[in-house]
From TrEMBL:
Organism lineage string: Bacteria, Pseudomonadati, Pseudomonadota, Alphaproteobacteria, Hyphomicrobiales
InterPro entries per record: ATP-dep_Glu-Cys_Ligase-2, CP_ATPgrasp_2, UCP005522
Chain ranges passing through the membrane: none
Alphabetical list of SUPFAM superfamilies matching this protein: Glutathione synthetase ATP-binding domain-like
UniProt name for this protein: Putative circularly permuted ATP-grasp superfamily protein
Segments forming domain Circularly permuted ATP-grasp type: 71-448
Organism of provenance: Methylovirgula ligni
Superkingdom assignment: Bacteria
Pfam families: CP_ATPgrasp_2 (PF14403)
Amino acid sequence: MGPSFDEMTLPDGETRAVYEKIARWLEETPPEHLASRRAQAELLFRRIGITFAVYGSKDAAERLIPFDIVPRVIGRAEWKRLETGLFQRVNALNMFLADIYGAQEILKSGLLPPDIVLNNPFYLPVMRGLKVPHNIYVQIAGIDVVRIDENDFYVLEDNLRTPSGVSYMLENREVMMRLAPDLFAEHRVAPVENYPDVLLATLRSVAPESTAGEPAIVLLTPGQYNSAYYEHSFLADRLGVELVEGRDLLVKDDVVYMRTTEGPKRVDVIYRRIDDAFLDPLAFLPDSVLGVPGLFSAYKAGNVTLANAVGTGIGDDKAIYSYMPEIVEFYLGEKPILKNVPTWRCREPAALAYVLAHLPELVVKEVNGSGGYGMLIGPHASQAELALFTEKLRTDPNNFIAQPTLALSTCPTALESGVAPRHVDLRPFVLSGSDGVRVVPGGLTRVALKAGSLVVNSSQGGGTKDTWVVDDKDCSATPPLPYDVSQAQQML
């Protein structure tokens, strides 16, 4: 792993153009003032009640995600290139999902081994041949990207099932505006606060074609004990829709209704934050008490839209991820704008041999893993952990991929010990509706608060930053994009 790309400072020690005002602010702000603002941020988040739970830990109590007062800054030209790459990737993912649940042309072509799709636990044969509203499978995508050099963003993973974190993006911005209005006044920061409006418009646009009048939308949550329940209630409030649990809905004659004090009210769109298996005990797990009996039948009948569609989880699979450059070219006839991180598929004997020989240098991930769990970071692993993963890889190589240990880019971060660089990633949120693909300029920046740590997940001790897309005086130096965004938006 080479030296990390410093997003604020050039190799010669000069400050990059988009960070010049941030650098001056950090120089002029006394350490005790930064410490005071950090404490104020924690107090604000605690009052708001923005928490998450870590399952399986000794201390599974609700926690605050640490917030860093120093924003992460991206120039508008850099953002434009990233945005265009996100449009391209999400379009390809939607086309891939429509194909594998339809004609399966990509499997017939031999580009993907059929078993990598058909034997995948998140591939649901019950979706085969089912036409989803407007042929859109992924209305809300969270695409995790990283920088490892000055030239490009790289996609680390795709999150298509129930991507979370947008509430932190919005709350981070509100808190930042309250705590650093002086810094805001010096920048033209692109807004993110219109995300709920854009999401609501997206959900309305994907209502079943038979919907009469204004579609009725609800947000379906597993309930208050879910780790992301705060976000569910936050978004329902911002969207102005009802937050419901499975018991609040009923299905009659393949139509979904919400129980109200005035009697049943028809539901047209469900923004669901429940995994496939728990959605409907009649179609999936029979002992699920979180879902709605008959919901999948109503979905098959075309009487309700589920966002995201059932069966999208296969798009999160890290083995599928390794084929994304080929998937983009297969469906769009274009080279991918956003690169993948180099990936070894351990299911392939030559790749497995390489991974086993270089395990102390690599990151190994379960193909269906998430949240930083079930992974090995070779350079930081003990001999016992290396031995355990060696056995896992030999026993079930199909369940793992490996990647180089990336030198994730760093941003300045205000810590108790002072301001220091820490590794970051970024999760932009991409919305796909019948009227096009959109992404608000910014996203959730996650930061590894421990010195040297590359794990940014909140469940593993990471924090978050506000992400600023700002005017960049060097925008004109950026080469033109080889991609037509308007064309991409018309491909769905």
